[in-house]
Design brief:
Radius of gyration: 21 Å
Order of helices and strands: HHEEHEEH
Shape: elongated
Number of strands: 4
Mean pLDDT: 88
Helix content: 55-70%
Distance between the termini: 61 Å
Length: about 100
């Protein structure tokens, strides 16, 4: 009979293996296959509305760093409070500012 520690270690290795397989499949579906569609000859083709939204917010953030868009004037006639967490926008805007 195997000690409990070895069984746990094998189970953890198995879980990590499955996690790596799932992450690999997800990256292939989300990045590898759409890459030639998104980055076409000379332009970027945004496929979803979230991409358009985040690109607009990031552009605004780069121009007004570190103050983020708080009210979205395009969401409704009177504007709408932006309740989206800003981590992605700050990361991309920070890389854009550093890159120049």
């Amino acid at each position: 009979m195997m000690p409990a520690v070895n069984r746990v270690a094998r189970a953890v290795r198995g879980d990590i293996g499955w996690l790596l397989v799932i992450v690999g499949v997800a990256l292939a579906i989300r990045i590898y296959f759409p890459w030639p569609i998104v980055f076409a000859a000379g332009h970027v083709n945004l496929l979803e509305t979230d991409a358009w939204y985040h690109l607009r917010v990031i552009e605004n953030l780069v121009h007004q760093f570190p103050h983020r868009l708080g009210v979205d004037p395009y969401a409704s006639p009177g504007g709408q409070f932006v309740a989206v967490p800003p981590l992605l926008d700050f990361l991309v805007a920070g890389v854009a500012l550093i890159a120049g």
